[in-house]
Amino acid sequence: MEIPKLTYFLAAAQTNNFRRAAELCSVAQPVLSRQIAALEVDLGVELFKRTHKRVHLTEAGREFAVYAQHALETLHQGQQAMTELHEGERGLVRMGCIEGFAFDRLPEIFTRFYQRYPHIRLQICIRGTDELLQLVEQGQLDFVVVGMTFDRGKPPETLMVQEIFRDRLHVLVAPHHPLAQLKGSHILLEQVAREPLFLLSEGFGARRVIERVYEQHGFPVQPVVEVDLIEGLKALIKLGIGVTFLPPSMTRSSLSAELVALPVADLNEEFVFGLVQRRFDVLSSAAKVAMKTFLQDLRPQAS
Q1: Structure confidence at residue 303 (pLDDT)
Q2: Got the DSSP string for 27-63?
Q3: Whether residue 153 has pLDDT greater than 60
């Protein structure tokens, strides 16, 4: 049984679409279709139910996907083990991260990671959650660390999410802002909505949540300023003339001295911070080491 057949099969199982699977594997769709048909002949079972526009795994296909993924992982581990035996732990890891972690939580993790694995190179892509999920789904990144909300439903079934921690959305103000003087009091969204509003640009999860919540409460969303960088947003809030909304975990280094995060009694929106990878992907040993490191180092700090 040839390796390409298994690769094409897992790509189709991931996407439920032969055209998209062919694009991910960089082959023509007829080639992929023929290889999967040949695999079905080899196995003597039907792996997919084919419709006009999509395909779906049969019961046999779902069961075989487990074995196919395991087989490719085992082969890759063997190849990687031979390389590491000769060269030591090394490789390239392509990861993505939202800005809120990139400048606050990750530098210390990178330092420890480099000290332990000096021959593993990291390529880090800093984008918004929506774009990072698209990049990892397309196979351009090995894994991403993102913050998600459920205002747009669950991530695509092609992706697998390992939850790291959750954090409630807070209103962010400068220490000398009038709302900061109410710390410890029962603050309502109605009070916050009276203040000048600074927001991230459209396309950010936090922006979508605030628009939805304001609309539900009958408040207009009229931001004074819109920016596409969290650091820029925090710099504006430090002036003390307006408010914004972010999870405290994304502003940890700025809190107390420069910014104050206040819970809002009738704002219960949660961000789920997680590590995301493709469901049927075969990661390199270096990528698996990096994933394990980031999961371990991020989780304890979330308490």
Answers
A1: 41
A2: S-HHHHHHHHHHHHHHHTS--EEE-SS-EEE-HHHHH
A3: no
Token pair of 68 as six digits = 């196919």
Report which residue type is found at 30: P
Q: Please give the full DSSP string across 104-164, using - where no structure is assigned.
A: TTHHHHHHHHHHH-TTEEEEEEE--HHHHHHHHHTTSSSEEEEEE-STT-SPPTTEEEEEE
φ, ψ at 220 (rounded to 5°): -75, 145
CA-to-CA distance for 104 and 108, rounded, in angstroms?
9
CA 87/CA 108 separation, integer angstroms? 27
Position 252 scores a pLDDT of 67
Going by C-beta distance under 8 Å and a sequence separation of 6 or more, which residues neighbour residue 32?
A: 8, 11, 12, 18, 21, 22, 25
Task: Output the six-digit token pair for 249.
Answer: 């975990």
Q: How many residues does the chain have?
A: 303
pLDDT for residue 266 is more than 80: yes
On the question of pLDDT at 193 being above 50, the answer is yes
